[in-house]
Amino acid sequence: MFIGHSELIFVAEFSPDGRTIISCSSDKTIRLWDVNRGEEMKKIQIDFDIAPSTLYVNFSPDGKTVVLCLDDRTIRLWDINSDREIRKLVGHSNSIWCAQFSSDGQKIVSSSNDKTVGIWNVKTGERLKELKGHSYNVKRVGFSPNGQFVVSGSWDGTIRIWDVTTGKELQIIKNEDDVNDVKYFPDGQMIASCSEMVKFVYGIQTQGKKYKN
């Protein structure tokens, strides 16, 4: 059990090496935890102008940088060692729920209540693509293992697959309920999704055939 946050915890994620957990909370802190010892390693106090809460946090593939989704509609890149902001990504017009690095660490994909998915250049902070198609809040997104595709899950009850280079929508999978999370399997051939009480696995090459629940 990891104890430290004083308010609601939004997200907790493992580092790439599995030795550290990072968490974010409405108490406006980000905390790093030692998995083996169960102890807090570091606390980062969010101290931006309007002191927003952090809605999502995750590691870069090398574990040196974290991406933060703040409720001021911005994405921030934060250096863990120096405890400083590296870059600020601006473009979404509503709350941002998720941001994930590509496997090579060169791009970030984000999801928002503005119904869009964003693809960003990590080095420059430029938004490369704005993917439109969902009709309601986009809750979660993620890259395929090879970085060529993006999967998004929305409260419009659909999962969508996109081409990263062209921004084209390639596939729509209709879920039975709002989609709260969605991820690629390591082989890139299947995706897992979850709704409020149900989990599904879909095959990509079989036009979204549902395999399990």
UniProtKB/TrEMBL annotation:
<dbReference type="InterPro" id="IPR020472">
    <property type="entry name" value="WD40_PAC1"/>
</dbReference>
<dbReference type="Pfam" id="PF00400">
    <property type="entry name" value="WD40"/>
</dbReference>
<protein>
    <submittedName>
        <fullName>G-protein beta WD-40 repeats containing protein</fullName>
    </submittedName>
</protein>
<dbReference type="InterPro" id="IPR015943">
    <property type="entry name" value="WD40/YVTN_repeat-like_dom_sf"/>
</dbReference>
<feature type="repeat" description="WD">
    <location>
        <begin position="131"/>
        <end position="172"/>
    </location>
</feature>
<keyword id="KW-0677">Repeat</keyword>
<feature type="repeat" description="WD">
    <location>
        <begin position="57"/>
        <end position="88"/>
    </location>
</feature>
<feature type="repeat" description="WD">
    <location>
        <begin position="2"/>
        <end position="43"/>
    </location>
</feature>
<dbReference type="InterPro" id="IPR036322">
    <property type="entry name" value="WD40_repeat_dom_sf"/>
</dbReference>
<keyword id="KW-0853">WD repeat</keyword>
<dbReference type="InterPro" id="IPR019775">
    <property type="entry name" value="WD40_repeat_CS"/>
</dbReference>
<feature type="repeat" description="WD">
    <location>
        <begin position="89"/>
        <end position="130"/>
    </location>
</feature>
<dbReference type="InterPro" id="IPR001680">
    <property type="entry name" value="WD40_rpt"/>
</dbReference>
